[in-house]
Automatic annotation (TrEMBL):
Listed name of the protein: DinB superfamily protein
Amino acid sequence: MTDVREPRHDLADPKILLLDFLDYYRVVVGRKVVGLAPEEVDRSRLPSGWTPLQLLKHLVYMEERWIRWGFAAEPVPHPWGDQDDDGKWQVRPEETVDALLAAMDLAGARTREIADRCGLDERAAVGGRFATEAECPSLGWILTHVLQEYARHAGHLDVARELIDGSVGE
């Protein structure tokens, strides 16, 4: 993980802001799960029952669903692979923090690749997540949605980490 800070305060380009904040929140999420003992990364401290590892996997799949499968209409073998048949987050025994952080980094690189060649007003392609043009949101909408998912779940991890070991902050 790199030492990424919030984007510079003088940035005004909306695409750069969105992509830089996405990079920032990926690092924040990574900081929240790195260093947790294996028994803590797989343990829930919340009534809803999710674990830090499940949330990390959800973020990896969420970004892939919206960017690769959604916006670019690329084939994705298991777009809902973070969920069981009931829609609950699940992690396979062989999935680790390191592997999921590497997958999150790859997803971030792919997001940048796709976004770099498109305008924020460009609409998602038909054929992946979206069956008709009427369903297709703009790249700007999708990036904003993905950013709010990361920010919201980073907050959830803040609470979980504080409950686990008292750590607070980014």
